[in-house]
Write a structure and sequence with these properties.
With 258 residues, the protein is α/β, with parallel strands linked by helices. It folds into three domains: 74 residues, Ubiquitin-like (UB roll) (Roll); 86 residues, Rossmann fold (3-Layer(aba) Sandwich), CATH 3.40.50; 67 residues, no CATH class. Helices cover 26% and strands 21% of the residues. The chain is built from seven helices and twelve strands. The strands form three sheets. The chain has a five-stranded mixed β-sheet with strand order 2-1-5-3-4, with no helix packed on it. A four-stranded parallel β-sheet has the order 7-6-8-9, with helices on both faces. A three-stranded antiparallel β-sheet has the order 10-11-12, with no helix packed on it. Helix 2 packs across helix 5. The chain starts with a strand and ends with a helix.
């Protein structure tokens, strides 16, 4: 039998039973196992972990746990430098490309609205999502804990909230992405990059046919998706989306002054 002391920090406690949160856990088990397997046996997906200390020294996921080890497990670090210790990934986690599972459709649209590169398509299997995350170097966002425990997945986060408005704030907060927002720079339908087109531009003729005559009568400025060709303009729908973005920015200001 092996006996260890393990403690999980900050939001990693969300995955634990209440009686195990925010304090040392004395744990015994039989047989050899890696620290990754040990951590996930508590229900904590390895992709949520960014630093493991064993007896004060940083280790990787493949470290084989020894008797009487003291293990400290930390989530993704955002606010201070831990460059002098062993990170669990060769490059920073906060790559702002994402792939989202089928249950996060509205979050995908919100994130695209804010300018983030979000790969989303309904009907994908867990295996497909995991493969896309690794192949395209994307952060996998999901509410399925088991999906993030797949060995192939190295970058991902569990989305705790169920309300889409709260979900986008959660993601921006946890990954410190407020300053990376670039609203209206991506198509919310297909994720393509947007380009501005004015009524007096040479390229306007290419999009004029899809614009209602009533809109052409008053609008001079348009935005065209370079991928799917959808055309946007600053109508009532734009006003609603702008109000949503403004609410998020107000949330950021409240955090900074709170």
């Amino acid at each position: 039998m092996y006996h260890v002391t393990i403690r999980f920090y900050e939001e990693l406690n969300d995955f634990l039973a209440r009686d195990r949160r925010k304090h040392d856990i004395e744990f015994a088990f039989g047989g050899r196992r890696s620290v990754k397997d040990l951590i996930e046996s508590f229900g904590v997906p390895h992709v949520e972990v960014d630093l493991i200390l064993v007896n004060g020294a940083s280790v990787g996921f493949n470290y084989i746990v020894r008797d009487n080890d003291r293990i400290s497990v930390y989530p993704v670090f955002e606010l201070f430098d831990i460059g002098g210790v062993t990170r669990l990934r060769p490059t920073p986690l906060r790559d702002t490309k994402f792939v989202l599972d089928v249950h996060l459709r509205k979050l995908a649209r919100h994130m695209r609205l804010l300018g983030f590169d979000v790969d989303y398509l309904e009907g994908r299997s867990d295996a497909e999502l995991a493969g896309i995350a690794e192949r395209d170097n994307r952060i996998l966002l999901t509410r399925d804990r088991q999906l993030l425990m797949r060995k192939i997945v190295s970058r991902g986060l569990i989305v705790r909230n169920t309300d889409p408005d709260r979900q986008i704030v959660e993601v921006l907060d946890r990954l410190q992405l407020w300053n990376a927002c670039n609203p209206f720079s991506r198509c919310i339908e297909c994720n393509g990059a947007m380009q501005g087109v004015r009524a007096d531009d040479d390229g306007f003729a290419q999009i004029a046919a899809v614009i209602p005559p009533g809109v052409r009568a008053w609008c001079e400025e348009y935005y065209s998706c370079t991928n799917c060709g959808r055309v946007y303009w600053k109508g009532s729908h734009y006003v609603r989306l702008r109000a949503f973005v403004d609410r998020l920015r107000k949330r950021k200001e409240d955090l900074n002054t709170g």
